[in-house]
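User: Teach me something about this protein's shape.
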Amino acid sequence: MPDYRILVTDPLADEGLTILKEFGDVEVLPGLSEDELVRAIVGADALLVRSGTQVTKSVIQAADRLQVIARAGVGVDNIDVSAATACGILVVNCPEGNTVAAAEHTVALLLAAVRNIPQAYTALKAGKWERKRFMGRQVAGKTLGIIGLGRIGSEVARRARGLQMKVLAYDPYLSPQRAEDLGAQICTLEELLQQADFVTIHTALTDETQGMIGPQQLALMKPQAIIVNCARGGIINETALIDALNSGQLAGAALDVFEGGDHPNPELIALENVVATPHLGASTSEAQVSVAVDAARQVVDVLSGRPPRWPVNMPTLSEEVAVVAERYSPLVDSLARLQRTLVSQPVASITIAGSGELTAESLQLLSRYFVAGLLEPIVEESVNYVNAFNVAGQRGIEIVQSRIGNGGEYVSLLETTVQTDGGKSVVGGTLTENGQARIVSVAGFETDLVPTGVVLFIWNNQPGVPGFVGQLGTLLGKAEVSITGLQVARGQIAGEGLMICQVDQHLGPELLTQVGSLPGCTRIELVKFD
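Assistant: First, the predicted structure itself:
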């Protein structure tokens, strides 16, 4: 096993650390400043953080070996994902680990605000018995509006239905069927704010959601309404919220996150009608163990060359599709090696097509592998499957993924097409029943090649000339190069045939020139597959 260095810069449950320590050298350095992290990141293969560490562009650019940044939690707003992607660094998170904890905390905050529990508790501890002052309301029969019906929002909806509440939902990406399954009614944001007795927020913090609940939105809400935010600070405009709470435009707020992060606005949290907690949404022992284990396992997966479960800057794959993609990755590598040898002009477009078990979802990942393998030796910057599409896009290369309706005699066929100004190069491959990679087509010729070792591809415009194989064997024999496999591809194209010759060692430039000078030889390419 390679000597991996794994850097952990926020507190992590022991269960996660145990997994990491069994795989590599783990350094736990919590509380680093940006400058300290810039120095510490040098030589690290993986970085695991929670919400405390700010992984800035400067930190990422200082990393010389970093393959993955893992966030033991849901949000990645403390990680410069764009900078990581540009540098070919995978970012992963753990969206399921704290789902139940966050949903339960949302409901707890809602009930605490509705029943004035913190205020009543404080008064009672001070020796005051004020039952009338802290008259509450029940939630049964009321309407809950949920902004964002993803994993956490869905769990909140389930609990709200258990409390006999009507559920409205605003989520532009939600299908009607999914909403129906959760017992929620889809509506616009304006309709939700106008009709809901209580509103909870469960969206990521993005440019689109920053300040999405501002003065105009708060003005739409019922005067007796309460708003709950356990998602991210900044989604609610806190200045507008303070005004609405002070004026009686809004009855109350329950907040676990704030615009100022761990320095919330004192004016806001001092209000009598505000219930506030210090970002406790994921703070259960069960959730901490779950996200630590999930993050650690994904770090191990990435460093082991396997696709992670929850990539942020790549398509998320189901476990079944990830297994298929992993099986085909050696074939993709071989196809990329062959194509970059065959293609001699600037690439205009790349098409990856598949049939059989190669679904559109698995092709998303395999396309990244192929593009990275094709471009890596011919571009100046580092390129891998994380930033492959970015690098291609910067060069104006179009990437196309498609399904082949019929793979012919093959159960599953993977076909790659590289288009240049001078034409196109098409190479296809498949896996045998025992999982062995085979290249089955090269530039229109039918082949049956196991892509291993050093292989010569020899085009000849006199395929019927007797003695060619003998001359080739004699030439290679004098150079002490043994032929380990030889086949003539089926078919002829424009009067040319293709011979594929596997040899036991690399051929130098002089010997390649001599092979290319044999009678009828029009083109020769050498590929080292492994």
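Now, about its shape. The chain has 18 helices and 22 strands. The CA atoms of residues 17 and 66 lie 18 Å apart. If you'd like, I can walk through any region in more detail.
User: That's plenty for now, thanks!
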